[in-house]
Amino acid sequence: MDALPLVALVAASAAVAGAARRTPVPAPLVLVAVGLVAGLVPGVPTYHLDAHVVLPLLLPPLLHTAALDSSYLDLRANIRPVALLSVGYTLFATVAVGWLAHLAIPELPLTAALVLGAVVAPPDAVTAAAIARRVGLPARVTTILQGESLVNDATAITAFRVALAAAVGEGMTWAAGIAEFLLAAVGGVGVGLLLMVPLHWLRTHLKEALLQNTLSLLIPFVAYAAAERVHASGVLAVVVVALYLGHRSWQVDFATRLQEAAVWKMAAFILESTVFALIGLQLPFVLKGLEAGGWAAALGYAAIVFAAVVVVRFVWVYPATYLPRRLSRRVREREPGTDWTAPLIVGWAGMRGVVSLAVAFSIPLVTHDGEPFPARNLVLFLTFTTVIATLVIQGLTLPVLVRVLKLPGRDPQTETLVEAQAQSEASAAAEARLEELLAAPHNRLPPPLADRLRSVLDRRRNAVWERLGAADPVTGESADDTYRRLAREMIEAERKVFVRLRDERRIDDEMMRTLLRRLDLEEAAAYRETDGP
User: Fold this and answer.
1) Nearest to 278 by CA among 4, 86, 5
2) Which Gene Ontology cellular-component terms appear in the entry (predicted)?
3) In Å, how far from its chain's centre is CA 301?
């Protein structure tokens, strides 16, 4: 096996994603555009999306890191809109888009059209998170979109299996379809519930940070594989486990949390960059399947399906937003009111992604009767064009829409004030505990060391309040900026001395690495003390 094409894909994707951060265009869109162009360049290796690779190997870690970054409490507070979108909308879109495609495209039978509907139904978790971070959506809208994208893949994949069974001639009944859906949903949640406590226990009882992080990397694959082994939803199992572990992450050793955050941040960056590039690189495979001379009709059908996907989402989102509030006093009392702008954003933020393409490529070539799967190449083309159109059209215009609507985003000043108040309460508790400990005979310290503990506590308590202060009139720096700069300059001076001593052979490399690591930790601590949200 030649590993060079894979290494080249990952390296090029990371380079493009890094360069895209310097542009106003979201990185996913740049990666897709570069992939589209690269796929047509002669000599570029072919990269074929395989559902047997994407679903068990790429999807679990992407879902895991997205769920770890989500808030269980926020999702629970918004469980109704999240469920209506992730389950209700996905099933509605499967039927509605499939039916409209069947009516508009003569060569697309209803069974194949429902397969297409299931494939393009779920908005993508990776895309939703990436776009939401970039455009600065309101917190509740972001929570709803992230919650939807975490769960809807399970609904769509199950709906796809039911529709595919009917399309290939397995004689799937409505009762069997409902039973399979319930098995996938209940089973996936059940597997997640069974695994989350033992896995968390392991994480809190392993003493080596290296072993703990190895376990962290294996967890999404274990959860997904265990659920799929019993024909349940691996997606739901991964999400349930990750939400629980993220909610309980404060119980894990600090060294593990520091390493884990860095490891998952790097893994998410590499996987997300590669996934979006892979989407664009599928263009040659899609074009190869189209019949010569059918371009005009295929492009017309693509426009119809894209329009259906967009319209169907709005048809669901607005009633799902207002009808429950109108019909239920409990909903009105428990959930904040909203105007027309929030559902407009939710409706427009329906970008599709790699899961849709991977699932589409898993459609078999023939049915159980040995006949070619009806309009398979057309389904692949329509899936590809829908994914590209939603990413480009909706992805590019969503930031503009947010700015035009002037949605209230996160207020840094208010968040800093809340953070400062929380830090003040925590510091008061820490100060009381410190004095209690120092009063014990076995905890007595020399006054300079005791004062050092108090000064560290004071610095942590005052750091957040200082961010609310004015900038230096001469340098334009805040107190935090100055503190970090001076700390960095001091540490850099020490670092140069250690390197010089190593070069003069007065210390060896192992000692130098130990001393440099200590400085690195001190520099990280200086940044964390004054780092904003």
Assistant:
1) 5
2) plasma membrane
3) 31
Find all residues with CB under 8 Å of 189, minimum gap 6, and list them: 233, 236, 237, 240
List the beta bridge partners of residue 366: 372
CB atoms within 10 A of CB 133: 12
- Indicate if the alpha-carbon torsion angle 62, 65, 71, 72 is positive or negative: positive
Q: Give the torsion sign (CA, 110, 114, 119, 124).
A: positive
Task: Report the distance separating Cα 349 and Cα 219, nearest Å.
Answer: 30
- Between CA 155 and CA 6 the distance in angstroms is 31
Q: What span, in angstroms and rounded, lies between the C-alpha atoms of 105 and 53?
A: 31
Find where tokens 């263009």 sit.
Answer: 283
Nearest 5 degrees, angle CA 480-CA 514-CA 484? 5
Is 372 strand, coil or helix?
strand
- Say which residues have a Cβ less than 8 Å from residue 480's Cβ, sequence separation at least 6: 463, 466, 467, 530, 532
Query: 186, 230 in Cβ contact below 8 A?
Result: no
Q: 173: how many CB neighbours lie within 10 A of its CB?
A: 12
Nearest to 243 by CA among 272, 220, 275, 268: 220
Helices (H), 105-208: 110-120, 125-135, 139-168, 174-205
Q: Mind listing the pLDDT tens digit of every residue in the chain (533 residues)?
A: 467 888 889 999 999 988 988 887 878 888 989 999 998 888 888 888 787 888 888 889 988 998 888 888 888 888 999 999 999 999 999 999 999 999 999 889 999 999 999 999 998 866 666 666 666 677 788 888 888 988 898 899 999 988 998 888 766 666 777 888 888 889 999 999 999 999 999 988 887 878 888 899 999 999 999 999 998 999 999 999 999 999 888 888 777 787 888 888 898 889 888 988 988 898 888 887 776 557 788 899 999 999 999 999 999 999 999 888 888 888 877 877 777 888 999 999 888 888 888 888 888 888 888 888 888 889 999 999 999 999 889 888 888 888 888 776 666 667 667 777 777 778 788 888 888 888 888 888 888 877 877 877 777 777 666 666 655 566 666 666 777 778 788 888 888 998 888 888 888 888 888 888 888 877 777 666 555 44
The neighbour count for residue 310, using CB atoms within 10 Å, is 18
Nearest-CA neighbor of 310 among 389, 232, 219, 209? Answer: 389
Phi, psi of 168 (to 5 degrees): -90, 0
- Tell me which residue has tokens 């992407």: 62
Give the integer Cα–Cα distance in Å for 233 and 489: 52
* Cβ contacts of 230 within 8 Å, gap of 6 or more: 187, 191
Residue 93: name the closest of 364, 419, 390 by CA.
390
DSSP class of 50: -
DSSP at 87: I
d(CA 272, CA 259): 20
